[in-house]
Write a structure and sequence with these properties.
GO terms for molecular function: catalytic activity. InterPro entries: CoaB-like_sf (IPR035929), DNA/pantothenate-metab_flavo_C (IPR007085). It comes from Victivallis lenta. The protein has helices at 27-38, 66-76, 119-126, 143-153, 195-209, and strands at 2-7, 12-13, 19-20, 42-47, 59-62, 82-85, 92-94, 113-115, 132-139, 158-163, 175-182, 187-194. With 211 residues, the chain is α/β, with parallel strands linked by helices. It has one domain (1-90, 111-205): Rossmann fold (3-Layer(aba) Sandwich), CATH 3.40.50. A hairpin with a 4-residue loop joins strand 11 (175-182) and strand 12. The chain is globular. The termini are close together. The model has no long low-confidence stretch (mean pLDDT 97). The structure holds ligand PMT.
Length: 211
């Protein structure tokens, strides 16, 4: 199977030396990409800036901003049998990017932000017949209800509801625990376990559902 996975955070520039980002380390996305490779799939990994080693046997496409990730993903997605969006993509970016280093002035500074593209929603609209589209929902409240809403709104086949209010799972940790929700109402609790084991379980369920 041709599989595309996204991982890591995005960086949204404020000026030449500052940016907005989040706490994603890429561990969950890289675990998914490596587990897919080891299951015999042909894997492309679109990754935001992370401190992880480049995985062997995987096509790595490094990107920085949400706009770059959108371009890289939308260009490749139509050829993929399975797309998993695990990246923590910024929802907002500064409306104006200052060319040099912004000078410090007296008083407060107000940054005006604008929405980025919802890449997963775009993928849900352009989904070819037979493609499996999987998202993640990073939530601190109403985990399952919010995840179910994203599954529906973004036209996904599966979504991994990830409680990111806990420090032992989610962002940055070596372990994770998710509830995998299917479009057909199926529900699987996965973990707590290593991100690699969680990745293997997600892939097994999702790829079985496509057969
Ligand atoms: O990288 P780690 O440190 O290992 O942490 C893993 C993780 C917590 C980042 C990961 O397990 C996870 O939950 N990833 C999803 C993060 C996220 O952005 O969730 P969200 O609920 O805000 O977004 C919902 C879905 O839409 C996600 O699949 C996201 O990739 C996608 N999205 C979001 C915003 C946007 N502009 N475009 C998108 O495609």
């Amino acid at each position: 199977m041709k599989v595309l996975v996204t991982a890591g955070p995005t960086r949204e520039k404020i000026d030449a030396v500052r940016f907005l980002t989040n706490r994603s380390t890429g561990k969950m996305g890289y675990a998914l990409a490596e587990a897919a490779r080891d299951a015999g799939h042909e894997v492309t990994l679109v990754s935001g800036p992370v401190a992880l080693a480049v995985p062997r046997g995987i096509t790595l496409v490094p990107v920085e901003s949400a706009a770059e990730m959108a371009e890289a993903v939308k260009e490749r997605a139509p050829q993929m049998a399975l797309v998993i969006m695990c990246a923590a993509v910024a929802d907002y970016r500064p409306k104006l990017v200052v060319a040099g280093k912004m000078k410090k002035r007296e008083g407060d500074l107000v940054l005006e932000l604008e929405r980025t593209e919802d890449i997963l929603k775009s993928l849900g609209r352009m989904k070819p017949d037979g493609q499996l589209l999987v998202g993640f929902a990073a939530e601190t409240d109403d985990l399952l209800a919010n995840a179910a809403e994203k599954l529906e709104k973004k036209n996904l086949d599966w979504i991994c509801a990830n409680d990111v209010g806990r420090s032992d799972i989610g962002f940055g940790s070596d372990e994770n625990c998710v509830t995998l929700l299917g479009r057909d109402g199926r529900r699987y609790g996965i973990g707590p376990d290593t991100k690699r084991a969680v990745a293997e379980a997600i892939l097994e369920i999702v790829t079985d559902s496509g057969q």
